[in-house]
């Protein structure tokens, strides 16, 4: 998807082509980053812990975090959302993500003209003196 494919009329379903997969890729990437942070924090906590019971619990959590990281990475590689062994492909994917982010940020979410004039069949409170109400 190129930045030209992101239309200003994002409500129109025809402009949402590939958006579910793009959202899934974004969620998976964010999940991978959070799991990586969890593994790092658990490893640090493990080195700071003296209690044998706490160390065993942290070791278990560390192994589970590493397994989850591997599972997410495998999914992302299988779906071609992540290219850890092909940096040129990963660069293209990162560039596409950057372009999409810029295009989304440039979308006009609110109309420039926010006047309500013309939206009503009559002036509000006209029956009691209009702006004197």
Explained architecture:
This protein is mainly alpha-helical. Helices cover 57% and strands 0% of the residues. The protein has helices spanning 19-48, 52-78, 87-105. The radius of gyration is 25 Å and the shape is elongated. 2% of the residues are buried.
Overall geometric form = elongated
| Number of helical regions | 3
DSSP, total strands: 0
Strand content: under 5%
Mean residue pLDDT? 82
Low confidence ranges = none
Distance between the termini: 52 Å
What is the helix/strand order? HHH
Query: Can you give the helix content as a percent range?
Result: 55-70%
Question: What's a quick, concise take on this entry?
Answer:
This protein is an all-alpha fold and 133 residues long. The protein contains 3 helices and no strands.
Which terms summarize this structure?
133 residues; mainly alpha; elongated
Write the layout of secondary structure elements.
Elements lengths: L18 H30 L3 H27 L8 H19 L28
């Amino acid at each position: 998807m190129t930045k030209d494919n992101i239309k200003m009329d994002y409500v129109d379903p025809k402009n949402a082509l590939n958006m579910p997969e793009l959202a899934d890729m974004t969620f998976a990437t964010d999940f991978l980053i959070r799991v990586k942070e969890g593994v790092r924090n658990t490893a640090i906590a493990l080195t700071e812990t003296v209690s044998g019971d706490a160390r065993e619990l942290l070791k278990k959590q560390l192994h589970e975090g590493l397994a989850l990281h591997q599972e997410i990475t495998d999914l992302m590689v299988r779906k071609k959302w992540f290219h850890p062994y092909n940096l040129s492909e990963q660069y293209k994917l990162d560039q596409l993500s950057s372009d999409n982010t810029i295009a989304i940020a440039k979308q006009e979410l609110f109309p420039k003209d926010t006047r309500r004039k013309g939206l009503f069949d009559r002036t509000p409170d006209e029956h009691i003196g209009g702006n004197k109400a």
